[in-house]
Amino acid sequence: MMVSRREMVRLLAAGGVGAAAAVAAPKVRAWFGPDRLPLDGGYAPAGNELGWHGGAVRVLWHVTTDRPLIALTFDDGPEPDWTPRVLDALDELDAKATFFVVGERLMRNAALVKGRYARHEVGNHTWSHKDLAQRDEKGVRDQLRRCHDAIVEHVGRVPTLLRPPWGHLAGTTLTVAEEFGYDVVMWSQRMRENLFVDSPGGIVADTAEQARPGAVILAHDTGPDDRLVCIDNIKGIVTELRARGYELVTVSELLAAGRPATT
User: Fold this and answer.
1) Is 259 a residue whose pLDDT tops 80?
2) CA-wise closest residue to 87 among 217, 190, 235
3) Which residues form the catalytic set?
4) Which of 23, 67, 208, 248 has the most CB atoms around it within 10 Å of its CB?
């Protein structure tokens, strides 16, 4: 029995998953198999026919090094609420970071950050913060290409790093990232803002105590208000990390200084 996707949605609305499955069990299995995500983005396999490239992509969340180096990273900007505050704090301390930007936000706020990423690294965080694990080859490529081009246009550099939103990966993300020549950057440590909403100063000691040589630290320069705990204490965090002997570097500098923990 052949059932269209529109009919399947109608059956789900009318009688739930059980009714739909009873009517078209074979078709349901085909749609909901491990290589299919029918409700948002289609399939996400590893075997896209992208031609013959390098055949591998580097994925990292920290770097193995004996040097006291740390990469501080910020996701989701630029936006006028917090991005200038982060850049001002880093400028005041002459500190480096890596910003994983959302392309449409960069286009909209290009004047806000013009010339302000000079000491920093800028990576691809997709065009509109879509879940790449739920996109097919065409969808992933569109998200990466549009953000890539926005960075080239408004930052004046070719990005070499990708951070997928929420850290969600699928085979298609990896094969298309390899096509762009990207390293995929996750994180080994995150700012635990939710623990310090009622005691904001605690995030300084917490971040420094968690830190290890080669760490990639996740923060955000826009988002819900609890993240302001981090934004309000950026100078304290950087100062405390330095007091403990750490040097802040970009992700690419961190990669160059050590052996990646995984390839």
Assistant:
1) no
2) 235
3) 75, 220
4) 248
